[in-house]
Each structure stands twice: as C-alpha cells, then as structure tokens.
Design brief:
The protein is an alpha+beta fold. The chain has helices spanning about 15-20, 70-80, 120-135, and strands spanning about 5, 25-35, 40-45, 50-60, 60-70, 100-105, 110, 140.
Length: about 140
C-alpha cells in the first residue's frame, strides 16, 4: 500500500512562481486546453522534489492556484511511469470537440486527446488526473 500526502496551501502570491519556474527541477508539465472555450483550461507542474503547482487559465488571466506536495513514493511512481514507451503519434489528431492535453517531460512534448488514448500513455494520464483530483479536493488519501 502506498501513502499519498498533499500539504496544501493556496496563495495569490504563487502567481509569481509560475513566472519563475526552474525548468531543471520540473518532473512534468501537464496542460489541458479546452475545445472552443468549453471545459477547464489549466497547467499542472510537478517538480522533482514533490512540489506541485496547479493553475487555472482563463484567456490571458490567471485563475485559481493551488500548491501542494507529493510523497517521495508518488514522485518515484511517476518517474517509473514516464520511462515507459509513451508514443502518442497515432493519437495526435485534430479531433473536433475534444480537449487537447499536452504532457511535457524530459525534453519531450506529447499532445493528445485524453479520451481516445490507450496503453502506457493512458496509464500516465489517469495517474496525473487522479493526483490532480486529490490536489483540487485537498484530500490526503491512500492509494
């Protein structure tokens, strides 16, 4: 059984952090873009030290920001998942009506529609969405 801990805080001052992110310490950057303005748009940064930054995006404005911390075990699990073959080339199609997800890690950038992917990329996407849901709800939980 793995433990999952988020130490949460929200701050208007965290907007400065998004402008000063040290890319060398970013484990991954996960971004969701809506289709034709429908649905949420946000950025999620997970850092190698376990820190997490979530920021909603509204047409050139910043929305809600949440910061948290993942356990070492969660960081390890994500690192292992990101080492798998995540080739999404067959899934990168402009499909009208589907939001676009962008996953950046280790100098790679994958762009895909989360609702039509499978395999290792789907596993990674599900894990990130699960962690994001816990962060947004502010719930420390057990996996």
């Amino acid at each position: 059984m793995m433990t999952f801990n988020f130490n949460l805080f929200s701050s208007d001052g965290s907007r400065r952090i998004t402008n000063q992110i040290n890319q060398n310490k970013v484990l991954l950057h996960y971004s969701k873009r809506s289709c034709r303005g429908i649905g949420p748009e946000y950025d999620l940064w997970i850092f190698t030290d376990g820190k997490v930054l979530y920021e909603e995006v509204y047409e050139s404005e910043h929305g809600k920001e949440i910061m948290g911390v993942l356990s070492r075990e969660e960081i390890y699990d994500l690192t292992i998942l990101l080492k798998k073959d995540l080739d999404s080339s067959e899934h990168v199609k402009n499909v009208r009506g589907f939001p676009v997800t962008i996953l950046k890690f280790k100098g790679r950038e994958l762009e895909y529609h989360a609702s039509i992917i499978d395999g290792a990329l789907k596993t990674v996407d599900n894990k990130i969405e699960y962690l994001l849901g816990k962060l947004q709800m502010g719930i420390p939980a057990l996996l």
